[in-house]
Amino acid sequence: MIDGKYYDRLRRLTLAVDKKSNAALLGSRKSVRKGSSAEFSDFREYMPGDDIRSIDWNAYARLDRLYIKEYMEEKESRITFFLDMSRSMDYGEYKKSELLKDLTNALAYVALMHMDHVAAVDLSDPGRIYSASGGMKGFRDICAWLDRLDITEGVDVARSIRITENLQPGMSIILSDFLSEEFVEGDALENIIKYLNYRKQKVVVLQLLAEEETDIGLTGTHNLIDSEDKDRKLKVTMDAASIKQYEDALKEFTAKLKGCCKKYGALYHLINTGENFDRVVFDELRDIYE
């Protein structure tokens, strides 16, 4: 989905990460602490114990007082992608799982070009976290990892996020269709956001749906099989009334997720596979960029 013309535009974007990593890693983010990078910040008077190499001797010659040059310390931010590759994501002419990979590809590129650290979590196996950093090399590595990522059975999104280890402060981006009972009937998303807030994350929720799920084209009578549970089957007749009922239920569900995100300070976007990818990345997701 992404070709070379996107990357020049992606380079101009920066993810708006409010919470920086505690790790002592250099990057292109400016922290509130002072360090030894090349970007000048301000002067202050010399105090005993300061590094004499930071004294501005030109200022001393003019003012007969010792001043220290301060520089902004650059810290790496940590961007964590939580990826739901459950069976329901394997749906659509342009599959939701493919959209998930394309979005992760684009946003990981934005992060890595600013020398941020990227962690990707396959929620079917949260104990194995793929980490990438280092600009283009890291980007090539994560592209290769995404290519190997495949659909799996029995993904428990909420539990997998909670047991993910080494979650450093930063931004967490969750990509899923959220089409499971824990989200439709329960309060799983609320619990996830509250937990990630506790772990000092800026939370971004990307709900991915297939165009076939948002714009119903089926007519007549069909036997439907639950993609997550093959034993669950339903015979439905797709007439105007049943389509309206489905559309109302879907609208209510997505509104519930959006309201939950707003209540707990997370960003929410509903993206379907029929949308123009360029518009999604550069326009619809503009509130996740600085």
Structural description of this entry:
It is a single chain. By secondary structure, the protein is α/β, with parallel strands linked by helices. It folds into 2 domains: 29-74, no CATH class; 78-288, 3-Layer(aba) Sandwich (Rossmann fold). It contains 10 helices and 10 strands. The protein has helices at residues 4-10, 57-63, 96-113, 136-148, 157-162, 181-184, 188-198, 211-214, 240-263, 277-284, and strands spanning 29-45, 67-75, 78-83, 117-122, 129-132, 170-176, 201-209, 220-225, 233-238, 267-272. The strands form 3 sheets. It has a 6-stranded mixed beta sheet with strand order 5-4-3-6-7-10, with helices on both faces. It has a two-stranded antiparallel sheet with strand order 1-2. Strands 8-9 form a two-stranded antiparallel sheet. A hairpin with a 7-residue loop joins strand 8 (220-225) and strand 9. Mean pLDDT is 84; it is low at 21-26 and 30-37.
